[in-house]
Design brief:
This protein has 9 helices and 9 strands. The site of one zinc ion has 7 residues, from loops.
Amino acid sequence: MPHPMHHLIADALQLAAAGVPVLPLREGKGPLGNCPACEKISPTRSRCGGRPNMRNPGPCQCPRPCHAWAAATTDQQVILNRPWLDAWREARAVGYHPGGANLTVLDLDNADAVAWARQHMPATRTVATTRGEHWIYLGTMPSSNAVRPGVDVKSLMQYARWLGPGTGTMTRLTDAVRTLVVRNEEANPLPIGGRLASSTPAPWTRHVATGCRHTERYITDGLTKGLAKIRAHIKSGAGSQTYGVARFLAAQHNRCPGPCGLDTIAAHLIAAATSVGVPDDYATRAVTRGFDAAA
Ligand SMILES: [Zn+2]
Ligand SMILES: [Zn+2]
Ligand SMILES: [Zn+2]
């Protein structure tokens, strides 16, 4: 199905006029890549330092739609500037930043997820997606992928695909929705084999931890609890929590002959810490020092 550029731009301008920040999405629904000046030098940092509205405010004034959700804008002049017109030409869909429009999207990937939401989530406006539905609430909250199988929460610092206004009356976020993000790591094991965020490290497996004395279940349960502790510190203290969790988890392997797959555990801890705003070099140091302290 073709999506001529002018349709995308028309949708984008209409959303922007309604106060919804928009961005172009490429085929496959992802944002367009960063330009060379904005190239990523780590999963959370780019050469240009990032946009001013990112978690770690940067100086980037790039006129292109770089930095995914952070590029989303309601400014018609930006949407129609030369670099964005080039981007719209490549784009296949319009994305929007729900948090920037005071919205939260519960992204239900499949029929099971929709059935679950109908039982447990407050009714609100819904939009049909390829295999599931978006449930759209008023209000913002932290975003998180895979809060349950097939369920993502997209609000602050995230983008969602625009698929039309949907149907039904939009309702305010309730605790039932809000607690999905804080509680998900406690209620569910690590989403091993489930849908993971693109930056999520590979799951811990026996395959790489042939010298570990512990069961896979024991390790992933411990890791899950540790990640929940780190992610619960959204406002502050996530760095020292990361250090404590790293030290605690690594100490469990002091008597294993190894290898214990500690690299994988470290990657998960760093990802959790950066997801709540700890700069990645700081998170890496916290984990390294925690591991050292345990040894
Ligand atoms: Zn750029
Ligand atoms: Zn940039
Ligand atoms: Zn071990």
